[in-house]
Amino acid sequence: MEHISFLVAVVIITALAFDFTNGFHDTANASATAIATGALRPKVAVTIAALLNFAGAFLSVKVATTISGGIVNEKAGVHPEIIFAALAGAILWNLLTWLRGLPSSSSHALYGGLIGATIVGVGMNGVNFDTVVTKIIIPAVASPFVAGLASWGATKLAYAITRKGGSAVSDKGFKTGQIFSSSLISLAHGTNDAQKTMGIITLTLVSVGALPHGALPPTWVIVSAGAAIALGTYMGGWRIIRSMGKGLADIKPLQGFASESAVSTVILTSSHMGFGLSTTQVCTGGIMGAGLGGPKPELRWSLVRRMVYTWGLTLPAAGLVSGGAAALARQGAWGVALVGAALVAGSAAMWVLSRRERVGADNVNDVAEVTPIEVTPIEVTPIDVVEVAPVEVTAAAPATAAPTPASTTVAA
Amino acid sequence: MHIKWNALAQTAGISFGVTVAVVAVFALGILALSRREAALGARQAADGQASGGRPALLAGAYACFALCAAAVAYGLVLIAAP
């Protein structure tokens, strides 16, 4: 460990910061439906999710050993500066989507950041585009449909079966079931996503020679990655929990259980088959399926449309920001410092904006009280992007602002 | 570029089948529980006391939940598999 330079230390801290944003961005995946149906109280739900995310980090290091599943050609010369730039783009995109309450994929933000920074820092040969299509794009398009279909079928069938039973008993039963099904999502999430950060840190340590090639993540890396994602999860991305739990459809315990079961099954099956997919997108698909399979099929399509736009934008937007950051960071120490300063300033600005319309454990289910956020956030966010990537600003700023209409938070 | 359509289709099929099966079994368990509740309630109304209690329905419900638990345990083994 004596080889760890200042830059490597900064990269490790930034990786843990990304892990933290990943945690609170994805709390909703496991807890949104359990909180919305009242199966678990909000604080209890995020506490369970945090503990299980931490436990999940220790279950396996299978993904961590091949960072990002071979998307980036690690031998082409990936330096700590490039990884730092990738993380900066991913964190900023995660915070921006969280501010707007949109469940976008943290994994896609990280992949996009890696791809963008590698193209700028190494060149096109640094990215395996075949792998990008087969391992990211196709599963990303297919998985929400699979989860939605499974959740829709399960909801229909479960309603048909329990139609003749008493509704009080079945509500209570499905709420109990939801505790288990949402726990399974948390565990699977911890296993998948904490490993990505472990992989990043390990790759950085290997790239500076602090660890031999092909080394497994050291224990301190596993523990700190697990702790960062658990802490992020415990903070609770309440904005996203509200969008997913209350914004898409009115979910009853039966639908929540069906959706959570579909999500766990899809995640476990596909990671077993080697498809890396976004838990967030699978989850959204599951909730939509459950909403459409209910007795009164309904979905709030405007929110669905906004989410789908965001999914499409995540990879290129994070890539653009990270590409710009990589162009700066490779200029030397001052470039890295500038990217770091922009990252801190941008994150702080978004946190301050989030305080204006606070969403927390106490008001996460009160959709009626929410007044739509005014245009202000949209005007401010491009400035954050400007600070990070002056080169890309004309492309990045309209892209992030364009598809999101003025009223942000889900006002039923 | 080689796209594994086969593996994709398999993943989709298995996911769908397992989800629908687990949720259906769980729903059957719930149905058994609520039938038992209804029967107990009816008997209570007739006799003025809640006794006996339809052991077959209770056992059926527990069998259903045990099946679901087994499916979850198998999922955990899949995650933790080396």
Describe the structure.
- The complex is a heterodimer of chains A (412) and B (82).
- With 412 residues, chain A is mainly α.
- Chain A is built from 14 helices and no strands.
- In chain A, helix 1 runs parallel beside helix 3 (80-99).
- The radius of gyration of chain A is 20 Å and the shape is elongated.
- Helices cover 84% and strands 0% of the residues of chain B.
- Chain B has 2 helices and no strands.
- In chain B, helix 1 (5-47) packs antiparallel against helix 2 (55-80).
- The model of chain B has no long low-confidence stretch (mean pLDDT 83).
- The chains are: A mainly alpha (412), B mainly alpha (82).
- The interface between A and B is large, with 51 and 38 residues.
- The helix tally of chain B amounts to 2
Total individual domains of chain B:
1
Mean pLDDT of chain B: 83
Assembly state: heterodimer
Per DSSP, the total helix count of chain A is 14
The biggest beta sheet of chain A is recorded as:
none
Strand content of chain B: under 5%
Helical content class of chain A: over 70%
Distance N to C terminus of chain B: 29 Å
Low-confidence stretches of chain A: 368-412
Number of domains of chain A: 1
Helices and strands of chain B, in N-to-C order? HH
Give the overall average pLDDT of chain A: 80
Structural class of chain A: mainly alpha
Sequence stretches where pLDDT stays below 50 over 5 or more residues of chain B: none
